Amino acid sequence: MRYLTLRFMNNYLENKYFQKKSATTFGGAPPGLDGRVLADLVHSGKTPQILFVARDGDRQAALVDALAFFAPELAVVSFPAWDCLPYDRVSPNQGVVAARMRALSQLAALPEDAPVVVVATINGVLQRVPPRAHVRESSFVVRPGERLDVQEFTEYLVRHGYTRAGTVREPGEYAVRGGIIDVYPPGAEEPLRLDLFGDELEAVRLFDPLTQVSRAKQKELRLEAVGEFPFDRDAIARFRNGYRQRFGNAVDSDLLYQSVSEGRRHVGMEHWLPLFHDEMACLPDYLPAAALALDHLVAEAATARFETIADAYRARQEALADRRDAAGVYRALPPESLYLKAQEWSAAQSGRACLAFDQFRKPDGAGTTIEVGGSVGRDFAAERAQPEVDLFDAVLTH
Asked: Three-state SS for 38?
């Protein structure tokens, strides 16, 4: 599509300050306009890949909407953060985890020069993620006419977080009935039914989870892992060894350790994610050539997140020391196992082109600043706070 030519476009497409591995601030770029700038930068070829770090989930959703408005054809990958607190006892929502794995699968298969904007929150970027090798191994694709070993396929489903059910109705479930396998990929609108003839896949069909009636044929079955770690014999052995090395041998009565050792999933086990992997990665690792774009006030949000992580870890350590944790022993991994340290976050910014967005205009000659020329629109907050004022009249008058 052709883009509107704005007076400030050349300011950031041709500015001498915009260079690889440098820091540039875009002044006068309030929320909404930043989406326009990002789209223009990608399409200009100035930086085909951008990782935008939003200060919170609301800003993340708003930027995704803005990019869809300004550049509907542009590839946009949204990477959500866990919806639970650091060192929580509950697991992140299964749908959130599936969306994270789907995003990582897209990035793991993405060429380095493919245009894309990845939108994440500061909470999502600071948390360590599974390595690229695990993400690639967890993807599964099969097409009609190809061989499908039922035992190997069900082992794949169990290893990557799917739950067996008598009847598939919810995302993340699967069922096996003779030559028919039903599976509900998280993030999909409807589940899929696989018709087998011996060990050959005859057809892949959508079906209604309420009526169980199958309908339209599909060209393939494509799955990603439901969870962020494998749950097979090797992964369980890694967990057991890592847990004992961290916390000693007096862990046999630990409910988490017992459950995982017996091959049973335990609520909240995701908070020991690094023990299931040989190594961990971070989101910027999936985009080594991308520019890093920072939302307005994201530095303050990062500081607050580091404090939240430290406070939560300290509380767990204190509870473990005096056994106040009545619900059971919680042996927390150190923060650097699960999250980036402040120094690592700073290094990630200094090692690539870094674009900071500020909604306020900057004075001329204010360092490596490019003035975009936008300003925050009037939101009529004063009028909306007064019930006796007719908001429509205020808008009309304005």
From this structure: helix
